[in-house]
Design a protein that fits this description.
Blueprint: H1 18-26, H2 30-38, E1 42-43, H3 44-50, H4 56-68, E2 72-77, E3 83-88, H5 90-124
Antiparallel strand pairs: 1-3, 2-3
Length: 125
């Protein structure tokens, strides 16, 4: 199932702007942050609790990158202490749909992947 690329785009070419999208999606925490925000608006601490294993530094970097790319919106409320909430933008929600398909695929095929890894490790030993 190959989709015809728009004129001037070739994801396999280093200079293609679409490569940056693949870079963003492929980063370790991007998909998990998107999926967490698919559940609704969250504060930083809520996201950190929801995504087991992510450090404060990595969550901050990931959120900033997603905000820069227009996938996540950050809203600051003038409270004491300051309250900051993150939510998916419409663009982020559309990407999240694709990430959710990948999550479903992972759930459906994890046993096969683990079996393949074990066979590979046994053969390499």
């Amino acid at each position: 199932m190959e989709t015809k690329a728009p004129e001037g785009y070739d994801v396999f070419a280093r200079s293609c702007p679409s490569r940056g999208v693949f870079d963003r999606i492929g980063e370790r925490w991007t998909g998990l942050v998107l999926l967490a925000l698919q559940q609704g608006t969250m504060r930083f601490s809520e996201l950190r609790r929801r995504i087991d294993g992510i450090s404060q530094k990595m969550l901050t970097q990931t959120l900033r990158s997603l905000e820069r790319d227009g996938l996540v919106a950050r809203e600051v409320f003038p409270t004491v202490p300051v309250t900051v909430e993150y939510t998916l933008t419409p663009l982020g929600a559309s990407l999240c749909d694709a990430v959710a398909v990948l999550r479903t695929w992972a759930y459906e095929h994890i046993d096969e992947l683990e079996t393949a890894r074990a066979k590979f490790e046994d053969a390499s030993a």
